[in-house]
Amino acid sequence: xxxxxxxxATMEEQARIGATEAGGLHRLALSDEDKEVRDWFTERMEDAxxxxxxxxxxxxxxxxxxxxxxxNPVLVGSHLDSQPYGGIYDGQLGVIAALEFVRSLNDAGVxxxxxxxxxxxxxxxxxxxxxxxxxxxxxxxAQDIETEYAKTDEDGxxxxxxxxxxxxRGDDPAEPREEYEAYLELHIEQGPYxxxxxxxxxxxxxxxxxxxxxxxxxGEADHSGPTPMHYRSDALVAAADVITAVRRxxxxxxxxxxxxVGYAKVHPNSINIIPDEVTITWGFxxxxxxxxxxxxxxxxxxxxxxADREGVDWEHEERMRAPSVTFADTCVDAVQTAADDxxxxxxxxxxxxxxxxxxxxxxxxxxxVFAVSENGKSHNxxxxxxxxDCYAAASTLAEAAVNLAGR
Amino acid sequence: xxxxxxxxATMEEQARIGATEAGGLHRLALSDEDKEVRDWFTERMEDAxxxxxxxxxxxxxxxxxxxxxxxNPVLVGSHLDSQPYGGIYDGQLGVIAALEFVRSLNDAGVxxxxxxxxxxxxxxxxxxxxxxxxxxxxxxxAQDIETEYAKTDEDGxxxxxxxxxxxxRGDDPAEPREEYEAYLELHIEQGPYxxxxxxxxxxxxxxxxxxxxxxxxxGEADHSGPTPMHYRSDALVAAADVITAVRRxxxxxxxxxxxxVGYAKVHPNSINIIPDEVTITWGFxxxxxxxxxxxxxxxxxxxxxxADREGVDWEHEERMRAPSVTFADTCVDAVQTAADDxxxxxxxxxxxxxxxxxxxxxxxxxxxVFAVSENGKSHNxxxxxxxxDCYAAASTLAEAAVNLAGR
Lengths: 407, 407
Ligand SMILES: NC(=O)NCCC(=O)O
Ligand SMILES: NC(=O)NCCC(=O)O
Prior knowledge:
2 copies of one chain form a homodimer.
Chain A: H1 4-15, H2 32-47, E1 51-54, E2 60-64, E3 74-78, H3 92-108, E4 116-120, H4 134-139, H5 145-149, H6 159-165, E5 182-188, H7 193-196, E6 201-207, E7 209-218, E8 222-223, H8 235-248, E9 258-260, E10 264-267, E11 273-274, E12 277-286, H9 289-310, E13 313-322, E14 325-326, H10 329-341, E15 346-351, H11 356-360, E16 366-371, H12 387-405
Helix pairs in contact in A: 1-3, 3-12, 8-9, 10-12
Bound molecules: N-(aminocarbonyl)-beta-alanine (2 copies).
């Protein structure tokens, strides 16, 4: 059994690092706040007697040995970074639950057959540097480390320089050093389904696929007054057409398809200059990879139409493509059994958000536990999961993990 | 006759202050570069024997006395500030032409009946602080000085603090100290009409009216993945609808109506967060004030529809409303006669851009000269007017001004 009081206190402790005034979290990957929470987490892992290591991409591991030296480790964790002005639960809950899990094993003097490793993946959010799930992606071999090192944020600062600056470019190679028995991750649902169905915990069966990308339109800057309408090549008008199309496309594809333009940057961004350069992003998700491909083709077709109409040039860059993932039965069953054994009211659910588990799926059997998200809100300071729901999900994770690790 | 070589050299000199790599000008109102060009201009006016004064809003005047102590001054000038990454001609040409005009009177030992004042108006561009034509607006009584002092730029820095910082909050009241005989302004056309018609100089008959404003949409930030489309209140989608509408509205109103969204700011601006706050601007212009009012009503109606559709809140703020202006016959005739006397091929033209002359119109008889804009381009580093065309327009200005001032 997890120590509920210590668990809640530890959640509150981490939430102070990068706290926003409105009670959220602003702890972007490789920022000063990320460094601070990493330092704090290192200490907590050492206090729990774990052997800490950091890999060359900043992924942090804490290991607790098992009784069988030949057994493969069970990996449990998530991420401590946040969205800009995000919430305090997100992936943080998954990391703190993993920590509390090993602390509880220590308290109870339980030895497991398999070693247990807990993990904090680098840059899961993908907001400052893209793609999301970058640390787990590199570690699982889905992304090339040199390419990802070279990525830059909005200010042109490179990933690797920031990783070094905060002191988290470790020595360990960013790859699995051995085979893993399983990976389990607890995360908040970030959607409305558990709450809508009155459930206490979610047994995740898979993760939607997605495509992310950027579109840039190049028009001609000119004076907003004396330039007749038919002389104009307005990059923002072309971008607006695509924003509208992205709102419409999901409704023509699938029940669970979603599409979003979350980002727009306008140059020179002056009230009386016709914009000459506008960048927007796209994001589409669906459980079906073919729908993802179709959405990708449609957004490019819309961009081409819009650019033609407005007489502007355009270019695009797909920044991420993640296939839809279906979890291993062993893990789904382990999570289901754990929830049942704890007497929790659960339901099976397909994740609408990407998770580090997406990449871990290619390394070993993988599963996830979802905690209820009030109003389905996340990536927002008002993201909320009650301590009851946090505790229910953390207990499910611990129960499933200890069963997989063998006691 | 103006000294063409000195005139071109002076144009080139001013263009060095705040020069961009691409040969444009980045000299925002009340910036360090604006201070530098003001210091430079003060020296040039003093060298030309003018009595320099600066008013409490930073407008700079240089006076050359006339022979009749009772005669009202003829005022000639424009503005030295620029758009972000704008061109080197814009209003700068009008100020340098005014300076070269008095220098040439000095060279030739010409005494005029009326005093001549040359002027550099503060913040004509309206990019960093809004509205545009702010200095002339305050001076002419169209704007309240305390309200304008309190205006802030994007970083929340106030106009008055910047004016003091650069040392240009002068002692003179920002208002006409006496009656003025006339105001003449030379500016580049910023539109394509003179070039399209193969003309050498434009005789401006009036200025379009305009409305400028800001619209802000307030939606709900949420995760771009697990949030079903029908749960969303996306502020950027609402804004995109209005951007599209602004492109369309002019075509339903008048032949010369233009409409532009030059600015958009998205919060939190992350690829995987549904935007919760988006601000865009509008700008509409037309020679007919009723069309301006109609465009204003339509853009608000569009905003309301878009906000309803997306389930977001919205607010608006009109930042500027300038009536359409028709110039005094005396001034139009003086400019026409000057162009004819110089043997220049001219045409009458209505300005599609706002100018300080808009406000001066309420103070005294006002007129303008337009120089040819290649490709109609302005507010852009590639803005271009040949030295021939600059000189033709400057000569027309000088000829018209000296006639009004009486030699
Ligand atoms: N779970 C989560 O928010 N991951 C970030 C990447 C994504 O947007 O899905
Ligand atoms: N002439 C000019 O560019 N004025 C700035 C204000 C406007 O946009 O008309």
